[in-house]
Amino acid sequence: MATPDPDAERVLADALPVHLGSAAGRSTILVGAGVVNLVSALTLLRAGHDVLVCDAAPDPRDGAPWTAYGCTRGGGDGRMFTLTEADSYNSRARTADGASNDLLTRPVSDGGWRLARSLSDTELRWAEEFHQLPPWLADNYNADIFEVNRRAGDGWTRLLASDPDLFETTGYRDVILRLYSDEEYYRWHVARNEKVGAIRTVLTPNQVRDGYPALADACGDGTVAGGLEVVGFTVNIHEFVEKLVGLLEAEGARFRWGTTVSGIAWASPGVADGVVVDGEVLRAPNIVVSPGAYGREVLRGTASHELVQGMLGVWLTVPNVEPMLDHSVKISREGHRAEETNVTLGTGEHGEPVLVCGAGYGWTGADPTNIDGAELDVLFDALEDTILRFFPKAHAAAVRSGLLERSRRHCVRPWTATCLGVFETIPMPDGGALVVTGGHNTGGFAQSPAIAEAVLAALVGGKDPMHTRYHPSRPGLFSR
Ligand SMILES: Cc1cc2nc3c(=O)[nH]c(=O)nc-3n(C[C@H](O)[C@H](O)[C@H](O)COP(=O)(O)OP(=O)(O)OC[C@H]3O[C@@H](n4cnc5c(N)ncnc54)[C@H](O)[C@@H]3O)c2cc1C
Asked: Where does the source fall among the domains of life (predicted)?
């Protein structure tokens, strides 16, 4: 585990201005009700803030069509915490000889990640930044991302102790089984997971077969090269956010659903005055904007504007047939189009046990609706192939019942070219602060308690390493 280097911290702190709020104004408007801002709302509420949350989408408890929601409520009903959940992905853009390639601009059907129908010059520059990040810098950023995962793990432990009901009634499952289809990649991951203190047990394919009869077919035909039981958990995220919204309301938070914030109102250049809804300025001493991959308009005028772009993933659900899987699983297939697949134990419409499977990387550019339908189908085919290889009986049952086709969903993760999250602080007139958070790639759920702590600290004048490590100008320090 990387320990913070005080010299590096000082360099970042000297170079990157952070505007901390004063503790005076304990009233906060939050824009966005995805999991990141909902966990921040709970933290602020319990620190004595008066909280108003605005979201363009409907109340998650209304059960509107999945397409009406953001990433958290819009995708499949499972999310995972592991110590490597948010990660650095820049090395994927390198060929074996270390040269950078065109991963983001090559279509999914050609082995790349491009899902966008067309791309602007700004988007192409963003892709270039992703491709060209030097390996040593990506490693440096990766250590910081993993440190946030670790801190978030402590936050989840605290939340589990203070609010067990939030987890017990939303499908909480402890310990993740990681599976690998390639031996070399498996060995690399054993070392990596060991480094972050994630490993509980290292398993040979035979041990996986004996411990997990649901995987006997995949272990028997050589699909599984090795397994690991690691620290982590899953929840059924739809129930989790519904429950969390109820808890927030019960503790005094107010919500305005179906409320689109069109932008930030500026008191003067660089000083935020409020947010604009239906042409009116909503004001509060503090504002926290966490719009996921949908922040292009609302973040105009901030340093975070266009730093966060969309990376779509696809979801399919299959029945958890006998012999049933009893742990959630993360599957790694190096070089496959569904390279990393999370399989969460869940419950179907009629209370039946299901496996909620999510995977794939499809870059949409800055517009999360910029999706080529034919390329999207290729991602669904890739996820289906993984389900077929690892859970052939469940796949066959899902095809027969029509569940495989019915359960097709996608959602778009907020992503940055450096894979670092974004944490921006902007002064407000009466000593408060406007905070922007986002871009946590594959780990927005996983990192949310650590983000919440950093948000609270920023609003009450406290320091948090995330303020500089996820500072939107940090990547610029290197290119100066
Ligand atoms: C296939 C797949 C699997 C994943 N698995 C995991 C996992 O196992 N673990 C994990 O940690 N992460 C996982 N992720 C990533 C995770 O889902 C996201 O990082 C997370 O949901 C993002 O949450 P958010 O709150 O940042 O954004 P969102 O959930 O998108 O929320 C943003 C909200 O802001 C609202 N909004 C946006 N603009 C405005 C506006 N102008 N006015 C008002 N409201 C606005 C939107 O309506 C939306 O509700 C996965 C993603 C995918 C695609």
From this structure: Bacteria
Residue 304: name the closest of 87, 114, 475 by CA.
Answer: 475
Helix/strand/coil for 372: coil
| Helix, strand, coil shares, percent, the chain, to 5 | 40, 25, 35
Contact 438 CB / ligand 1 (< 6 Å): yes
Position 95 confidence tier, pLDDT thresholds 50, 70, 90 = confident
- Which ligand 1 atom lies nearest to the CA of residue 314? 1
pLDDT (0 to 100) of residue 100? 64
Residue bearing tokens 């996921």: 292
292 Cβ inside 6 Å of ligand 1:
yes
Closest of 23, 36, 28 to residue 272, by C-alpha? 28
> For 317-328, what is the mean pLDDT?
98
C-beta of 411 in contact with ligand 1 (< 6 A): yes
The pair of three-digit structure tokens given for residue 411, joined into one six-digit string? 């959602």
CB of 36 sitting under 6 A from ligand 1: yes
Strands 50-54 and 254-256: parallel
**Which of 89, 46, 29, 10 lies closest to 442, judged by CA?**
89
C-alpha 269 to ligand 1 mean position (Å): 29
Domains detected in the chain = 6-92+131-479 (3.50.50.60)
Q: Is residue 238 within 6 Å of ligand 1 at its C-beta?
A: no
Residue 1 pLDDT: 40
Distance between CA atoms of 246 and 242, rounded to whole angstroms?
A: 6
